[in-house]
Amino acid sequence: MSDCLFCKIINGEIPSQRVYEDEYVYAFRDITPQAPVHILVVPKEHIASAADIDENNSHLAAKCLVAAAKIANSEGLSGGFRIIANSGPDSGQTVLHLHFHILGGKPLGTGLVATE
Ligand code: AMP
Ligand code: ZN
Questions:
Q1: Residue 70 and residue 39 in contact, taking contact as beta carbons nearer than 8 Å
Q2: CB atoms near residue 66 (< 10 Å)
Q3: Non-local CB neighbours of 88 within 8 Å, separated by 6+ positions
Q4: How many CA atoms does the CB half-sphere of 34 hold within 13 Å?
Q5: Most informative mutation of 5, 19, 30, 86 for ligand 1 (most atoms within 8 A of CB)
Q6: What is the pLDDT of residue 115?
Q7: pTM, 2 dp
């Protein structure tokens, strides 16, 4: 997708702080970290959101989760971490390229959604 921010990060048009890359997956530090460790894991193939995962591309979502586990290990998140994939307007998704936030490095609290 030529006008997709994360496609541009994947192909190097926009710089990023890469933490992991393989044939299927690219991972980089979030530009506005919300925890001591805040990394985005994305499939190299453009998938708009979790709502667009299907039988044909689900292996790419799985590759992202395999990468997330490796990254959590390499980042030293032995105390645990959270994976979030915002999908669609109600979730607050701002970049329409499937991405898994990995958050960790401190206790993250028990709430999954903002309560206010
Ligand atoms: P979401 O709101 O779930 O769509 O998440 C998008 C994330 O992308 C936000 O946490 C942003 O801080 C992050 N982000 C936006 N632009 C960049 C960028 N150029 N490099 C790294 N992270 C970015
Ligand atoms: Zn894209």
A1: no
A2: 13
A3: 49, 51
A4: 10
A5: 30
A6: 80
A7: 0.97
